[in-house]
Amino acid sequence: MKPANLTYGVDDTPPLSLLASLGLQQVLMATAGWIVMAAMLATITVSPGDTQSILRMGMIATGLGSMLQANRRGPIGSGFFCPPIIAPAFFSTTVLAGPFGLPTLFGMTAVAGVFEVGLSRLLPRLRMLFPPEVIGVVMTMVGIAVLPAGLPRLLADPSTLSAGADQSSNVAVGLVTLAVMIACTVWGRGVTKLFPMLIGIVAGLLSAVALGAIPHETFQRIANAPWLGVPHRPISSYAFEWSLLLPFTIACFATSLKNIGDLTLCQKINDANWTRTDMAAVSRGATAQGVANVIGGLLGTLSHNTSSGNVGLSLASGATSRTIGYSFGAMVVLCAFTPKVAAAITALPAPIMGASVIYCCCFMMLSGIQLLTSRLLDSRRILMAGCALAFGLSAGLSPHLYVNAPAFLKPILNSPVSFTALVAVLMNVLLQLGNRRRLRLVLPAGSDHYDVIRDGLQQFGASVAARKEIISTATESLHHVMESLDTGLTNGSVTVDLAYDEYNLDVDVSYDGQPIVLVKTRPDRETLLNDPTGLAQLSGWLLAQRTDRIRVKTDGERCHLLLRLAN
Amino acid sequence: MTDIAHYQPVGRFDATTIKQHEAELRRLLDAGAHSIELDFSGIEFLSSAGLRVLLVTANLTEVKGGTLRLKGTRPEIREVILTVGFDDILQLND
What we know:
The complex is a heterodimer. By secondary structure, chain A is α+β, with helices and mostly antiparallel strands.
C-alpha cells in the first residue's frame, strides 16, 4: 500500500513535464558522486583528459544502471528508483590498482561486477542474516555516513572552497539553500512540495550570485566547455591481476551490504505496511548493480553502488516512481554527451551541495531509526545495534585507527556502512547463541493472569525482536482467551506455548475442558444482550478477526486453541 | 445532576473490573443522566465482557433519548470497537 506521504509512489507515473524536472533534481544530487570520483582519481596518476573520459563513462554507467534497476521484468532489476553512484568502498582498491595501470583497474572493475552478480543470486538464501533490526541499524548508518560529505560543504569548511573564497558568504548560501528546502517540504504545496531540492538549489544559486560566492573562473569554465562531444573510452584493452582479486572481492561484499540497505529502504518507503525485506527483489536489484559495474568496467570507469542520497531525496520529495529511474538515466547519459551541462552541474557551489546532502540525510537516518525502534529490543539486540553503530562511526570519525589494518580489509574498514553491516550481522548471529525462540506460560486456575501474560510476552518479544504490534495483539488475544475460558470452559490450569520465527508467532493455548466457540459471523445485538453464549461468541469472533489464523483442536479431554499472527 | 454524566474508568475494562464500572454507570443513569461521556484515555484493555457493558449502557441511554460517548480511546481500543462494529451504537470522539 502506498504511504500517504508519497505523491508519486513506485508504480505511479508522473506527467512527462514533471518527469524531466524530477529527473533533473536527482541528477543534481548525483553530482556529489562525480565529485567523489574525481577526488578518487586524483589519488592515482591519471591525466586530466582521462579523468574527464572516466567521469563521462561513469555518467553512462550511472544512467544505464538506473534504468536496469528500475526494470521489473526478468532476473535483473528491483523495480525501484535506486540509481547507482560511485562506490567509495572501492577507494582503496583504486589506489591498489592504480600502479598497474588503467587497463588493470577497469579489467578488475568488470571482474568485480561479475562476482557481484554471482553474490546477488545467493542473497535470498542469506535472508536469516538480515532481520529488520540489522537492516534498521545499517539504514541508520547509511544516512549518518553521508554527513561528513555534507556538513563541511554546508558550513563552508575552507578545504571545500576555492582559494580566496569568502567563508561567511558561503555559509549564508548553504543555510539559505537548506532553509528553502525545509520550507518547501514543510509548507510547500503541489509543485513546491515535489521539488524542494531543485527550488532550494535555485535559491542557493541566486544568493550565491548576489553575494559573489561563485568565482569568475567557474563561469569561464562552463562557457569554454563545448555543447556536444562524444565521450571516449580511456583505454583500448583490459588486464587482470591475481593479487588484486581478494581486495576487489571484499569491496564487492562491502558494496553488496550497502546495496541491501538501500534497496530495503526503497521497499520500506514505498509500502505503508512493510514488515520485512523482500530478499528476492533485493537480489534482482543487486544483480542489476553488478551488471552495471560490468558495463562500467568495460566502458572504462570505476565501480558504482546504490546511491543513498538519491533514495533519500526521492523520499523527501515524495516522488519514488521507478519511471524517474528511466528519466534520470536518460538525462545522465545525455550529460555525458554534453560537456557544457556536465561542467555546469559539477560546478555547483560546495555549500549548495552540502545543504542538499544534509537535507536528504535527515530522511535516511530517521527511516533507519524508525525501523529499528519498531521492534522490541532486548539487551542482545541493543548491544548489537550499539556496537555496530560505534564501530561504523569509528570508521568515519577516526579512520586513523585502521591505518595499520591489512589492505584487503580496508574496503570494509574505510566504509562506515559496510563496517556497521558486518559488525551487525556477526554480532546478531553470535548473540543469538542460547537465545530461546519459545516460551511456555503455565497459568493456574482461579487467579488473575493479566500481568503475567503482559510481562511474559513483553520479555519474550524483546528477546526475539518481534514487532511491537504483533506482541500487543498476541497479548490482547490471550487476555480475550483467558476471559472466555473463565466463563466455565475450564476449571484447571491453562498452558500457553509460544513459538516465534521470522514469519509467524504461533500460540498454542491448551487446557482440560470444553473448546472455545468460534463463530463465522459477528453475534448481533439481540444475541449479545439475551443469549447466555453471546459473550463467548463475541470473544471467539473477535479472536478470529485479530489473528491471521485460528483453529480449535481437541485431544480427548485436552483442548487446544491454536493462534497464528503473521510477523 | 446534568443530562450528560461523565465517568473516567482507569486500567482494564474486562471481566475482573466490570462489576465496579457497571455499577457506577447504573448509578449515573439512575441519578437522571440521559447521556454518558466515558473518558477512556486511562483504559488499557477492553474485553468482550467490557464490550457487552458498553452495549447495555448504550441501550439504556438510547431508551432515555441520549447517547453513550467515548473520548480519548487509545488506538488499540478504538480498533477493537471498530472491529466489532460498536461505532454504530456509541459515539467515538477523539
